[in-house]
Specification:
The protein is 29% helix and 21% strand. It is of the alpha/beta class. The chain binds zinc ion (2 copies).
Length: 437
């Protein structure tokens, strides 16, 4: 067969997606994510970090395809398409050769640029010098004999897309990460409608939540954060994935409803700043302060943030703890320690598990810090991923000839769960080819 799909990642694990679509004359890569599962066996930020691509290849963390990394060799594909700006989908794009263009939604590019500027330099994710091209829903991008249509979907970060790809042998759809229970569910419905419009030969879908089904909503999350904030007698501290704007708005609303000011770190402010001019994304920040840091060295991007935002000194938060809700990542927990939460303070962990696809938490140490401060923890969360019943509904409506479950650890369970739909389920293996037709 002429058209093939090769999965270099995202197989039997949550994230690390790397999907090659190739015809005889044209190839594209969908996502080039970091596999936390294999990377954390050998590396631990910020001390043991990869220094070269050869080591990552040898350890089996990235594909053993030298053409992907060296511009001296023939191009292995013509373009890279990113579904969204989560590290498990974009975290290894820095390793790819620079002469292959990268396409992504505008908000995703803004987030990637802001993260690139506000993070420690890394060979894995550095996008400096890359050819970046943005797309919107409604665009059809022609690359050789392929036509790629990106369509917005709802997920836990703005600028998330699914793709419908026309090939000479029929259409392939890729969900990226998506959900139908989120605040922007209508975007996902647009994607489902687009898939229904044409016969989909192969649907490559995430199936993250086969064992984590929950019925909840972002509105419910906001209510719960608000209830905790209302009853809290001290400082409210929160943490969640840095590019989740829905969650940010929930914390913001909960703080405002209870007469508290929101305090964030410069890095989170940099992400919010990068999205402020995007009218489709509602970033509320009128009553948000950026926490000044004690470090002597201030980077240029931080200077910019300190000028652009209202700032607050840690001592001022410390003096009036009942007036603030501070969003702070674990790496900055020492700042909270110095603020010295008064008895009655609480921490709201707003993520589903210790190892999230976009937020790496050293759970044991987090518990130790909270113990040292006498701060109890609440967990309040709603998933960015589609629930099992909803996913089955999508497959029933789209009626693809074949489904390939990726980005999840339970493909066999998934296969049995949708058996009655009479859709062929192909459980992928890393590196093996799935042909169309
Ligand atoms: Zn993901
Ligand atoms: Zn994601």
């Amino acid at each position: 067969m002429e058209t093939n799909i090769t999965l270099y990642g995202g197989v039997n694990e949550v994230g690390g997606n790397k999907i090659l679509i190739s015809t005889r004359e044209t190839s594209i890569m969908l996502d080039f994510g970091l596999s936390y599962q294999s990377r954390r066996k050998f590396f631990s930020d910020p001390f043991i970090i990869p220094r070269d691509v050869e080591t990552l290849v040898k350890l089996g963390i990235v594909p053993n395809v030298p053409e992907m990394y060296s511009e001296k060799l023939e191009k292995p594909f013509d373009a890279l398409f990113l579904s969204h700006a989560h590290r498990d989908h974009t975290g290894h794009i820095g390793l790819l050769r620079k002469d292959i263009p990268t396409y992504a939604g505008e908000a995703s590019l803004n987030i990637l640029k802001a993260l690139n500027e506000a993070s420690r330099k890394s060979i894995e994710s550095d996008i400096h010098g890359k050819i970046l091209k943005s797309f919107h829903t409604g665009d059809v991008i022609k690359i050789g004999n392929l036509e790629i249509a990106p369509i917005h979907v709802d997920h836990s970060t703005p600028g998330s897309y699914g793709f419908v790809i026309k090939t000479p042998e029929g259409s392939i759809a890729y969900t990226g990460d998506f959900r139908t229970h989120g605040p922007k569910f209508s975007m996902t419905e647009d994607f489902i409608r687009k898939m229904k419009e044409q016969q989909i030969e192969v649907l490559i879908t995430e199936h993250t939540n086969m064992l984590d089904g929950v019925v909840s909503s972002e509105k419910e999350v906001e209510e719960k954060i608000s209830e905790i904030t209302h009853s809290c007698e001290g400082l409210v501290i929160g943490d969640f994935a840095i590019a989740d704007i829905d969650r940010y708005n929930s914390f913001y609303n909960a703080a405002m409803r209870n007469g508290r000011q929101l305090v964030i770190t410069p890095k989170r402010a940099a992400i919010l700043s990068s999205l402020r001019n995007d009218r489709r994304i509602n970033v509320r920040a009128e009553n948000t302060f950026v926490l000044m840091k004690e470090k002597q060295r201030t980077y240029d991007w931080e200077e910019k943030i300190f000028k652009e935002w209202k700032t607050i000194e840690p001592e001022d938060v410390s003096k009036k703890q009942k007036e603030f809700l501070v969003l702070i990542p674990q790496v900055e927990m020492q700042q909270i320690f110095k603020i010295s939460p008064i008895p009655g303070s609480v921490f709201i962990f707003s993520s589903s598990e210790p190892f999230n696809e976009e937020l790496e938490i050293d759970y044991d140490r987090l518990i130790n810090w909270l113990g040292a401060m006498g701060v109890p923890m609440y967990t309040v969360h709603v998933s960015g991923h589609i629930m099992p019943i909803h996913l089955k509904r999508v497959i029933r409506e789209v009626r693809p000839k074949k489904v390939v479950p990726i980005h999840g650890e339970n493909p066999e369970l998934f296969k049995k769960y949708i058996e009655d739909l009479n859709v062929q389920v192909e459980i992928p293996k890393v590196g093996s080819r799935i042909s169309l037709g």
